[in-house]
Amino acid sequence: MSGRMGTTEGSEGAFIEVDGVEKVFDVRRRKGLLRRERHQVRAVDSISFTVARGEMVGYIGPNGAGKSTTIKMLTGILTPSGGRLRVAGIDPSRERTRLAHRIGVVFGQRTTLWWDLPLIDSYKLMHRMYRIPDARYRENLARLVELLDLGDLLEVPVRQLSLGQRMRGDIAAALLHDPEVLYLDEPTIGLDVVSKTRVREFLRQVNAERATTVLLTTHDLQDIEQVCSRVMVIDHGRLVYDGALAGLHEVGEGERTLVVDLEREFPPVEVPAPARVVRVDGPRQWVAFPASEPAAGLVTRIAERYPLVDLSVREPDIEAVIAQMYAERAGRAPTQSS
Amino acid sequence: MGSARLYLAVAARGFRRYASYRAATAAGVFTNTVFGLILVYTYLALWDERPDLGGYDQAQAVTYVWLGQCLFAALALQGGGVETELMERIRTGEIAVDLYRPADLQLWWLAGDLGRAAFQLLGRGVVPFLVGGLFFPTALPTRFDTWVWFAVALLLAALVSFGIRYLVALSVFWLLDGTGVSQVMMILGVFFSGMVLPLNVFPGGFGEVARALPWAAQLQVPADVLMGETAVAGAFAFQAMWAVLLLVAGRLVQSAATRRVVVQGG
Ligand SMILES: Nc1ncnc2c1ncn2[C@@H]1O[C@H](COP(=O)(O)OP(=O)(O)OP(=O)(O)O)[C@@H](O)[C@H]1O
Ligand SMILES: [Mg+2]
User: Fold this and answer.
1) Measured distance CA(A45)–CA(A189) in Å, rounded
2) Quick check: A333 pLDDT over 70?
3) A117 vs B13: CB contact, 8 Å cut-off?
4) How many whole angstroms separate alpha carbon A174 and alpha carbon B145?
5) Does A128 sit within 8 Å of B9, measured CB to CB?
6) Residue of A108, A199, A187 whose CA lies nearest to B96
């Protein structure tokens, strides 16, 4: 029933459609001994985006930004307070169970596996639960076991697995039924470098082979850099960036750095503002300039006036850009209402 | 049906899971046996004073005691079935994992609980029952069909028992903590199921009410079916009514819970 060429998608062929979606939590806080104060937290504040089939999208933002809340709404376990949401043409919270056959979910901090059972027994339950045809189940299991290197772990009770082993087990569990979309909420949390690399490689492979749509939240920007072609940044429940990873530099108002090697030592070179020399070390100087401007003009200008030997341009550290973006927004009025 | 195999697998897992708690099972068997002995001697003293109390003779009173000890764990008369795990999952937000699966939450937990009940009937119930049967005069039926009716009554009792505990567990979606309701459930369960005294002995309006409550469907009714003290059809109708009511209520509360209430934690 799940064919790749589903006809149920929205008009533009978007696989995931999120249109003005909000989630407001009522929070009761104790104030004094008996008095309780009610107020509302806008965890997700009018977010809109679409994801096409087969896209790999990174979803990032500081703690409490609303990432997990968005994912929960996309799986149907939370009902939006407002707006419209469709996954494969299905309204998730209305038809949670129908949608469940078509999505795979990995919450890094929770497990779908049964603690007391050997890994393979959890998979057997999934087999029944998702009604995976026997041949397909065997084939998928064999493939996942190989790709995620689970062979030695199948008979081990889940509670005895290490975090990284368990995560791989969880990822396999989420893919046994060939979901069309995979949501991953912090799938690399707590993993060592080797395991992280392996998980990322695996995700790329699944996407390449099966055109699985992937939506991934993380605090590790390398996950995004190595897996996603597109990134969405959410902060205080609002989408503040949606586009290519490279484009974040401009939005983040980041600066690039031009490193010039001159023939000998000079005082800081003269450059037009806002470019400026940020460091001098012998004949080498570092010039910061807005990431949105081409380096050519600056290079020409320096070459005209100084004996230029060598140069290189350094892209801003994406992590620094995002940190700066978060910090700037935190400085402004938060969008929490009462 | 495809999903029947799933729920059978879940029930089997419930059975195996409780079977793996060996020490707890041994301790439970011991407790139920000792408790049975205490109750039996208490009842014998009581029935000496008041023969025919509640319509039971001494052998029936003794049978009732051992039946209670036999079913105590299986029917989770004071709680302690799968609902403890369910409450914990709701409290911590792990329930999210159960909700994005294509399985029915209520059937899933019901299947697990029936698996648990089956194990506890065998693992914890049989020994106290045998002790009672071997060392005390009891009033067990000799007709085979009575045993069949008794088995049906037990199955219905298990459904009623689950129905109550499932509702209690779902309350954690709103209360966020199940300690209070669990305690209330435990006290009500022990008393109104007839673990302390058969509900037959209570006179007047109070007795009427006690015998009409769903807890009566768990121990009192199966005991009366076993000892031929009630019309089987009426007994089944009473149990089935409560089972249906509670399970339907469970479904309604479940959809309200998952629709309006929030899954905890990031
Ligand atoms: N069950 C809840 N009840 C009340 N408020 C909640 C609830 N769940 C989340 N929130 C609030 O909603 C906001 C967004 O939370 P969410 O878990 O979506 O953040 P996140 O982006 O996943 O953060 P993190 O990176 O820390 O995982 C936070 O302010 C949080 O306090
Ligand atoms: Mg989160």
Assistant:
1) 26
2) no
3) yes
4) 48
5) yes
6) A108
Which of the residue ranges A33-37, A130-134, B111-115 would you say has the lowest mean pLDDT? A33-37
What is the number of CB-based contacts under 8 A between chain A and chain B?
Answer: 65
pLDDT given for residue A337 in this prediction: 39
- Does residue A274 have a cis peptide bond before it, meaning omega lies within 30 degrees of 0? yes
Q: Which of B5, B94, B100, B262 to mutate to test the interface with A (most CBs of A within 10 A)?
A: B100
- B19 CB-contact burial (10 Å; exposed 0-12 / middle 13-18 / buried 19+): middle
Which chain B residues contact residue A93 at CB under 8 A? 259
The Cα–Cα gap between B118 and B75 comes to 9
pLDDT attached to residue A253 = 61
Position A317 confidence tier, pLDDT thresholds 50, 70, 90: low
Closest in A77, A116, A124 to B263, CB measured: A77
Q: pLDDT band for position A331 (50/70/90)?
A: low
Which residues of A fall within a CB distance of 8 Å from B262?
A: 25, 78
Q: A78, B10: Cβ pair inside 8 Å?
A: no
**Best probe residue, ligand 1, of A40, A67, A235 (max atoms within 8 Å of C-beta):** A67
Cβ A234 vs Cβ A47: under 8 Å: yes
Phi, psi (rounded to 5 degrees) for B264: -75, 150
Predicted confidence (pLDDT) per residue in B43-53, tens digit: 999 999 998 89
Could you give the domains of chain A? 255-315 (3.30.70)
pLDDT digits (tens, 9 = 90+) for A231-281: 999 988 999 889 988 777 666 566 788 899 998 888 888 888 888 888 888
Report the pLDDT value the prediction gives residue B94, as an integer from 0 to 100: 87
The Cα of A63 is separated from the nearest Cα of chain B by a number of Å equal to 10
Supply the ipTM of this predicted assembly: 0.81
Pocket-testing residue among B262, B263, B264, ligand 1, by greatest number of atoms within 8 A of Cβ: B262
Q: Other CB atoms closer than 10 Å to residue A24's CB: what's the count?
A: 16
Strand, helix or coil at B176? coil
Cβ-Cβ contacts under 8 Å, B101 against chain A: 100, 112, 129
- Residues B29-70: tens digit of each pLDDT: 999 999 999 999 999 999 999 988 989 999 999 999 999 999
Q: Pocket residues for ligand 1 (CB within 6 Å)?
A: A 25, 27, 41, 43, 61, 63-69; B 262, 264, 266
Are B99 and A124 a contacting pair at CB < 8 A?
no
Partners of residue A101 in chain B, C-beta under 8 Å: 102
Q: Which residue of A has its CA nearest to B102?
A: A97
Supply B32's token pair.
């139920």
